[in-house]
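Dock adenosine-5'-triphosphate; give full complex structure.
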Amino acid sequence: MKPFRILRRYLASLKLLCALYAASVVVEIGYVVAFPLSLKFLVDTAFIPKDVQAFLFILGLLLIGGLLNVAAGAGGDYTLAKLSGRMLQTLRTELFEHVQKQSVDFYTRYRTGEITTRFNSDLLSIEQVVGATFPLGLKQGFTAVAGLCLLFTLEWRLALALLLGSSLLFVGPKLLRKPAEAANLAVKEAEGHFANTIDEMLKGHKTIKALRLQQAMLDRARGQILSLYSFGLRRSFMNSLLERVPMTSLMALNAIMIGFGGYLIFQDKLSIGGYIAFFTLFMSVSQAVFHLSILIPYFIESSVSFERVQHMLEDAPTVVEADLPAPMPPLAHTIAMDNVTFGYTEDHPVLKGLSLSIPAGSFAAFVGPSGSGKSTALQLLLRFYDPDEGRITYDGLDVKQISERSLREQVGIVFQDTFLFNASIKQNLQLSDPLAAEEDWVAACKAAHLHETIRRWPEGYDTPIIQEGGSLSGGQRQRLSIARTLLRKPSILLLDEVTSALDFATEADINRAIAQWKGGSTIISVTHRLASIIDADLIFVFQDGNIAESGTHGQLLERKGLYREMWEKQYGFRVPVSESQA
Ligand SMILES: Nc1ncnc2c1ncn2[C@@H]1O[C@H](COP(=O)(O)OP(=O)(O)OP(=O)(O)O)[C@@H](O)[C@H]1O
């Protein structure tokens, strides 16, 4: 089956364990099938002629076989646990790595809940199928086939009659498979939606309280829980139907067994021992087939999970590294965007043929109305996305040719929305640069004007951060995020609205710090606070995905264009002709 491609791929790398498990299964199946056969000899050659020697011989063989069977079973269980554990370990790691190396657009295509259900619900189904359902199915399948072959050697007419009758067993599952798959998929999707709501409820708890959205959230959750209930009901019903239909077919087979078997005995075409052996073996075969039919719903459920995980694994990153990526030399001349056109969706370009050039070591600023494309331009400089047209170059080297590692080493960014890990302040800093010594992170915190604050806390740099930074003030979070970036000593520093969450005093501190970094690093700052970029070497005024004007603060004020208008709105005042008010 197509969804089980992943299973094949992972099992191929665990050949030795597979071979050991297969050997244990052969022994177990051999015993299950041979045991009923021994009844024929016990009855016909030992019990009826009362031959004690033959009886003891068969008993001895059965004992040895039984011990072997127990040993093979225990060994098989251990091998299986190891096999499934290793496979799941690899699959989990691969999925994690795969999600992590995705380009930024991936995280907008999938919502958090959809991704997390792949890791929990779907991987649990896969674990269940690999560790239990699949091996059990394999064992029962082989038992059924081997038993059936033996039934043919015991009495081919009866075996043929049963084989024809057993085709009934497969009609039901065939008809029910598609609707059962659809029901399983619906449940998985509903789980994803509900997981999303829980995620939003936890992350947005303050907004929910402040906007009094509890009832709306509860209504949404209720709807999703109701869907989970109704889809779950459908899935359970389909699954139980899948189990029940083959059970009914088995009753028909029993009738054939008794009716036609009795007829053969009356006709002297089958011995009593042969019939007992046939009947016992038939019971083993039908039990195996019954177990197989019980497993079908689990196979269907896991095939949906396999497909969902496979689908995610096939989702290739949109931004890929060049085959032979070049290391990025320290910036010596310019960062340039050359006729760049880009849109998050095909039909809506956000940047429209934008060109700009920023000299190395300068302090540049991107300003402009909301939605004009400033943050998007910054993200393209970081190569979070690739332009649809045009080029982005560092000293003439196309960013697509630069290795991701060296780009990230040289270009640091501080976002408007800071994300901090649930660890101590020190650990958050160390994550950024594991080799940094204490004096390095203290220096970075001093440069971000945070050191004095941390020093006053009882636990200092060991203060734990909880709720992804929710335990710190907006300004502290932002300054810690700045320190974390500075610790890596990037030669190009991108700042995306870093002072927007800060009070004026802290903003002034940060702006002073930025002024100190000037000259050392090339700084590009996206901001709405024009006062913070008065000293910028170059200001680019964005408007509708392009540069409306550029220059220094003084030059732009003189131009009396969009920048002047923005400046006057923020800091200027107008005196109307009447001079009665300002
Ligand atoms: N991930 C995204 N997917 C789709 N559209 C996006 C995405 N990010 C931004 N946009 C859209 O692209 C346009 C430009 O957004 P961008 O954030 O670059 O503007 P901006 O000038 O930085 O705005 P602001 O000053 O408000 O931060 C907006 O219309 C925005 O809705």
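Observed: The chain has a mean pLDDT of 85.
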